[in-house]
């Protein structure tokens, strides 16, 4: 998350989704890591705005002593192993060569976050550019499969972004899919993707 993007329409979208999932008990002990690439520029008022927009409490926001851009291993080690987790990189999950690694989460880092608890759901923001959203999501999942084949995923997709809900627990992912199916009704087929371990 870059401070320049704070407050855009996507923060409202994320917040609306997370509010419903928390209210209905779908997410458990939910925490959020903003993955700030410009952490030194963030002021307390900016963090408070981020918390309000994502509709979480301040204690749910992960705090860091290590900088994402300078010490990734130290940074990710500071994230609790308990509870469901939202990661908010600027661009999404790395699948190829990139100019700036800080804008992405590496597949191995994401898999490690899932491995901390086999029942955990890890949610990741994914930006989409120059292709259909479902195609890009499939590419991302293929990159993750190279690191670990044993996970399940539901995606909530728009024309330019997606939220990926990943877990080693099939039942947790199915509950999320059922939640979105009920929420969106007939529109779910155009917005919600579901991959089981065999399809990934």
Descriptive notes:
The protein is an alpha/beta fold and 200 residues long. The protein contains seven helices and eight strands. The strands form two sheets. The chain has a six-stranded mixed sheet, sandwiched between helices. A hairpin with a 3-residue loop joins strand 6 (152-157) and strand 7. Helix 1 (9-23) crosses helix 2. The mean pLDDT is 89.
Give the gist of this structure.
By secondary structure, the chain is α/β, with parallel strands linked by helices.
How would you classify the helix and strand content by structural class? Answer: alpha/beta
Q: What is the number of helices?
A: 7
Largest sheet entry: 6 strands, mixed
Strand content: 15-25%
Gross morphology is globular
Write the layout of secondary structure elements.
Elements: H1 9-23, E1 31-33, H2 44-54, H3 72-77, E2 85-87, E3 92-93, E4 104-105, H4 107-115, E5 121-127, H5 133-145, E6 152-157, E7 161-167, H6 170-184, H7 188-191, E8 192-195
Parallel strand pairs: 1-2, 2-5, 3-4
Antiparallel strand pairs: 5-7, 6-7, 6-8
Notable characteristics:
200 residues; alpha/beta; two-stranded parallel sheet; 36% helix; 17% strand
């Amino acid at each position: 998350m870059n401070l320049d993007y704070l407050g855009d329409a996507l923060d409202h979208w994320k917040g609306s989704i997370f509010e419903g999932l928390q209210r209905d008990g779908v997410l458990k002990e939910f925490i959020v890591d903003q993955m700030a690439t410009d952490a030194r520029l963030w002021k307390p008022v900016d963090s408070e705005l981020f918390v309000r927009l994502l509709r979480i409490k301040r204690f749910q926001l992960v705090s860091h002593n290590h900088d994402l851009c300078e010490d990734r291993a130290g940074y990710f080690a500071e994230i609790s192993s308990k509870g469901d987790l939202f990661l908010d990189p600027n661009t999404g999950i790395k699948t190829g060569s990139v100019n700036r690694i800080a804008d992405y989460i590496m597949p191995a880092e994401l898999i490690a976050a899932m491995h901390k608890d086999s029942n955990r759901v890890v949610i990741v923001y994914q930006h989409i550019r120059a292709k259909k959203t479902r195609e890009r999501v499939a590419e991302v999942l293929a990159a993750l499969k190279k690191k670990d084949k044993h996970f399940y995923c539901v995606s909530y997709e728009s024309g330019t972004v997606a939220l990926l809900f990943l877990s080693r627990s099939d039942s947790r992912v199915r509950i999320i899919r059922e939640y979105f199916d009920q929420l969106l009704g007939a529109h779910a087929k155009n917005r919600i993707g579901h991959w089981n371990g065999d399809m990934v």
